[in-house]
Amino acid sequence: MASRLRLSLILAAVVACGQPSGPPPSSVATAPPVPAGVLTIGSVSLNPTQEYEVVRPFADFVAANLHQVGIGRGRVVVVGSLSKMVEELREGKVDLLIDSPFPAVFVWQHADVEPILRRWKWGSDVYRSVVFTRADSGVESVDELAGKIIAFGEPFSTSGFLMPKAALVSAGLRLVNYEDPAASIPGDRVGYVFSNDAENTMFWVLKQKVIAGAVNADYFEALAGDRINELRVLHTTDAVPRNVVCVRNSLDPKVVRAIEDLLLEMHLSDEGRASLERFEETTKFDRFPGGAEQDLARIMTLLPHVQDDLGQ
Amino acid sequence: MRLGLKGRFVAFVSAIIVAFGVVLTALSVRAQNERLRHELEDRGKLLTTVIAANTADALAMLEVRELRKMISEARDQENVLDAIAFDEDGRVLTDGTVVNPRRHALISEAALRHVSGSQALLVEFDGDAMTVTKPAHLGGRVLGGVRLRYSLASLAQDQASLARRTATVGAVFALMGVLAAALLAEAVTRPLKEIIRATRALSEGEPAPRLPVRTADEVGELAEAFNEMTRKLRDTTVSRDYLDRVLETMGECLVVTGPDGTITRVNPAVCRLSGVGEDELLGQNCRDLFRAPKGHVSLFDALGPDGSAYGLETELLARGGETVPVMISVGAMEESASRARSYVVVAADIGERLLNERQKDEFVTMVHHEVRAPLTAVRGAIGLLEGGVAGDLGERGRELVEIALRNSERMGRLVNDILASRKLDSGRMEFHFEKVEMMPLVEQAIDSTSAYAAKHNVRFELQQGVPDAMVRVDPDRMIQVLTNVLSNAVRFSAADDVVTVKAGRHHQMLRVAVSDAGPGISEDFREHVFEAFARGEHDDWRHRSGTGLGMSISKGIIGELGGAITFETELGVGTTFFVDIPESA
């Protein structure tokens, strides 16, 4: 039930992300004078307009609370690829990046940035993916997916695609993208198609349109419902942080510190919580419990398997 | 409360209109409710069909995300309570929500059976909603389908609104119908009211107005009939004023009494004759005004069975104990409603007439004693002179005696006729009826008059008789009548003329016809033939004229004998007198 609720919250947040943001909190706006400094938050998206509208209120809130470090205005830069984002960061045009772990680690590896905080979403700090099949499919392990076809969610989804694909590849399987779920798959490969929706993935497996599917583990029970007994989980991936906050290393350390302090305490105030909710149902920010190196080590290991899928 | 014709008409028509309106409104509302329901159902079916068509590809491709969008849009449609898309196994794919709590739930068995075997719509009603299931098939393969739960609750609101509007329109039309009925009733009853007003005016003695005839229907006919009635009433009746005027001016006394003789009305003549005022007379009994006729204990005792009487002689009791002789006629009026009789007493003052009668009687007595007796003595003396008792009178003396005798006889006849006439008038002539043969009476009369006829060279000729015919008469009076008629014929006959006598039966009577060949009776004199002292103006026969009483006496006698005397005459041809007398069996 809890997972079903979380799924609904997530989907509701996705639908609501296009809503316009409100004005900055009055307590911040009232602090004169407004500094001239600008804090730029970058984002990667193929839907820049919608993304801008989601991020801008958060940027305004952050900037409005960084006057003490000379930041008077927030700015949002949306780019269409990770390589462009790397370029923007390198050129100092973006100060702050908040993204999924695989893109964040990719940027971390290619630009002078530092992951500083985790971003909780929908009440959870990490997520996993499950690879599942019908219980009567005859497939009992991921190895037996060879010559068959599996359905993933959306192309840039960490839990719906990147994580499970990386897990399967690391298990020694060769995954090849197909458009047609009914395509004939050679025995040395695992074909995959994008269902573009977790529900699609679930029904495609249940209706045997594909042999297996992968969805966020948090949604799996909700999607399976009372037919969960008809399914068999082949693999559950390791937990990875939901989102990662990276800052440009060349940014003034005072500003970085101020940003850390601000983000870490946002969920403690009403205005902060309101801003977080508007920012894709963000629950809070915290530090990496085991440190960024350790907590992102698994991502760094898997990244090569899906690096080509990050839309560079 | 009693309704008039108009009220009843309006009530009746209103009741029909209202009943008709209620039934019509109910039928209309019912029909429109059905139409609304069908429209709403059709909308739901159409929407389901459209959504099913749109979702067919997504169902075929199992694109649940697309299905979710479409079902979500379907849920936003008006009156859609719920919507789902399901697969060929009847399991819910999506209900259009993100949470999709009914995911994998099975639709009803009935719906699933329908989907498996049909592509048609399945409509299930449940309270104020209906669920429409539209299967989706592709090339004979069942893909699943969509189910829409469609609210019919708005139907009740629409139906209520429609019923209110229909009822309002119905009420307006009913009101207009009632108004029309009232106007129609007014149009129908207005002429009747005019007739009622005119009738009341007529009954109260006012001049009845002429009613306008507006229409050619029964009401128009009624108005025409009323006008005709009032016209005839004007022609055949007199107004109360007119009657009052007549009563005021009439010389005779008129008294109206109730059944018990109580005086209820008198005319001024009563007051004048009695010297008593009208106020005093009203309420008195009739016996206080009129003395009982001779031989009766009261005036009403003298009335016949029908309550009427004529020619009763009595006295009116005037103020101061004086009496006025009156002749009374009484008529009874019977009120049809109460059957109570009223009496109308008409009394004529006969004081003057009685005085004349008395003076006549005194004259007759005087004639009888002072003329007839001396005349008898004169005739006797003349007879003696003619008989030579006084010696030979000489030629000149005999001529003078003969003249004296002839005139005394003539005077004697005149006296006898006057006395006979008076006896007839006063009812004192005595008759001695007996049954006798008719013809001997005729023959005897001819014999009695033959000398007179011979004297004038006139001859009687009995041309026809009725042997054995019997009559019941006073023979002497009968002979007197016949003698009068015969002598009258001789009187108007020329010398050598023949007076014919015929006896026969005529209309159950015995008739004696006496015809002369005289000059005939002039037209002016014909109606005076039987009047006393009436004589025809004719120079040639003046010397033969009688007293002028003969025919009057004859008519009076024959009337007392139960017969009649008439005549036919033609100027220059002659006259025939007919004496008719009942034949006795």
Shape of chain B: rod-shaped
Q: What string gives the helices and strands of chain B in order? A: HHEEHEEEHHHEEHHEEEHHEHEEHEEHEE
Parts with pLDDT < 50 across at least 5 consecutive residues of chain A = 1-29
Biggest β-sheet of chain A, characterized?
6 strands, mixed
Question: How big is the Rg of chain B?
Answer: 59 Å
Mean pLDDT over the full residue set of chain B = 85
The count of DSSP E runs of length 2 or more, i.e. the number of strands of chain A, is 14
Count of DSSP-assigned helices of chain B: 13
CATH topology of the largest domain in chain B: Heat Shock Protein 90
Instruction: Kindly report the CATH topology of the largest domain in chain A.
Output: D-Maltodextrin-Binding Protein, domain 2
What's the structural domain tally of chain B? Answer: 5
- Which structural class do the helices and strands of chain B define? alpha+beta
Helix-residue proportion of chain B: 40-55%
Output the CATH class name of the largest domain in chain B. Answer: Alpha Beta
SS class of chain A:
alpha/beta
